[in-house]
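Summary for the steering committee. The consortium agreed at its last meeting that each partner would contribute one worked example illustrating the joint modelling workflow. Our contribution is presented below. We chose a case with several input lines so that the handling of multiple components could be demonstrated. No manual editing was applied between input and output; the record is shown as generated.
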Amino acid sequence: MAARIQLPGRARRGEVIRVGILIQHPMETGYRLEVDGRKVPKNVIRSFACRYNGVEVFRAEMSPGIAANPFLQFHTVALDSGELEFSWVDDAGQPGSAREAIEVI
Amino acid sequence: MRRRSFLVVLLGLAFGARADPLLDPITKGAPVRQGRVKLDMPLLADNGNSVSMSVSVESPMTEADHVRAIHLISERNPEARMASFHLGPRAGAAEITSRVRLAGSQRVVALAEMSDGSFWMGSANVVVTLSACVDELGS
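What follows is the complete predicted structure of the assembly.
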């Protein structure tokens, strides 16, 4: 599962920064049918978390009510240089993760 | 006994507490106040499969006073609880943007849970021209 991250590479200490992530995932609702009439099983990213240098700063629980290729934008305070780590898991148990460095001046 | 339950209902009405089957699982019956929450969604969405959604809550986001969670609730989707976002003082700002699926025109509610345990809500009415597909198995 590929993901694209929006994060300022550099921020001032104490600045509130905007964090965006776009994850490639179908977010299957469980209501769609295959050509042969079989139900496509429900498979959505249920949980998503963002850790800043190991500390959780944002967490989301999602449902089929979130559009395919989920896009999430939230905020966090730039405290220290380091890394933001994103992790998620879907109904099929498939985990995904991504990370991005940030420099705090 | 019946008179007492009647009084309880009357008191509840007086304080604006209504039993809401959509909100109760989250609030556990706690009163929900209007305000502080701004839910931004388009008035008209051509396609219910992807509707932009932006929610912001007025809060200083300090250790003592912050938003603990924001819940998105749909009146018409098969799964009423669309998403729950958990945040804290480290967020700096209680503002979240995403894209949602809507199974038809409806009112969407954003419910904010504060660090003092109080609940605030805001809502948006969206007219959806083409719903997210949930009908195939519905009939």
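Chain A has a mean pLDDT of 94. The CA atoms of residues 13 and 79 of chain A lie 6 Å apart.
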